Amino acid sequence: MARKKIIAGNWKMNMTPSETVSLIETLKPLVKNDEVDVVFCVPAIDIIPAMEAAKGTNINIGAENMYFEEKGAFTGEISPDMLVDAGVKYVIIGHSERREYFAETDETVNRKVLKAFEHGLTPIICCGESLTQREQGITIDWIRQQIKIAFLNVSAAQAEEAVIAYEPIWAIGTGKVATTGQAQEVCRAIRDCIGELYGAGTAEKIRIQYGGSVSASSAPELFAQPDIDGGLVGGASLKPDFGQIVNYKTAKQQ
Ligand code: 13P
Predict the structure, then answer these.
(1) With 60 as the cut, is the pLDDT of residue 179 above it?
(2) Residue 234 half-sphere exposure, CB side, CA atoms within 13 Å?
(3) Tally: H helices and E strands in the chain
(4) Above 70 in pLDDT, residue 10?
(5) Atom 9 in ligand 1: which residue has the minimum CA distance?
């Protein structure tokens, strides 16, 4: 069976709670498309108003981060139960900005992934190489290592539910989108790596997104690649362009 595409916005540190409500009001008629899963990953404080604003639509609300402990003295963190109670289904784990600015490592990513599954949340697990690593020719080795550590002790049943987002760091927020060939090559390598870990059945089911300067004009070709099952979209997810990205098959390209 064909994998259902999953197109997620990552709002990053943008939008106040009231701005959230008006952005969702603007976007909700534009992102209607039952053929794909549509997710808005929003800042923690925006989750409740976003959930309210998205009620009765095809928009799923996701979180941008989560801590790996249950509860307690972890000032400023958000627990898995808090997300579940708020109605969240998806949570981004290990975004390169979290790794770079907030000292997240492959090991903490793995702990968060395990915790997310324990609570029935679907992690969107991010991986990606820097420009230096790409130029050194170690992209695939690097990504394979990130994936292997992220999936330590994750069962096959859990793994097939996971979403992986391949986001080359040099393509994030730079307007420098990876070529479809580059994106497909790495997404294929990720699927092969999952196949080695869990077998071909799991590899065929897991969904792999591309992220990094996805726009209304680049989405159709990227999402047509055999191993790219949608996108994780930053800047363009805050604009009506996101409607065109979600409707990449039918939207009129400018
Ligand atoms: P941009 O789409 O703004 O490049 O951001 C990509 C990203 O980091 C999504 O998680």
Answers:
(1) yes
(2) 20
(3) 12, 8
(4) yes
(5) 234
Helix, strand, coil fractions of the chain, as percent rounded to 5? 45, 15, 40
Q: Which two tokens stand for residue 175?
A: 């307007």
For domain 5-253, the CATH class is alpha beta
- Quote the pTM value: 0.97
Q: Catalytic positions, please?
A: 95, 167
Residues with CB under 6 A from ligand 1: 10, 95, 167, 172-173, 211-214, 232-236
d(CA 163, CA 40): 14
Residue ranges covered by each domain of the chain: 5-253
Q: Has residue 253 got a pLDDT over 60?
A: no
Provide φ and ψ at 230, rounded to 5°.
Answer: 130, -165
Helix (H, G, I), strand (E, B) or coil at 169: helix
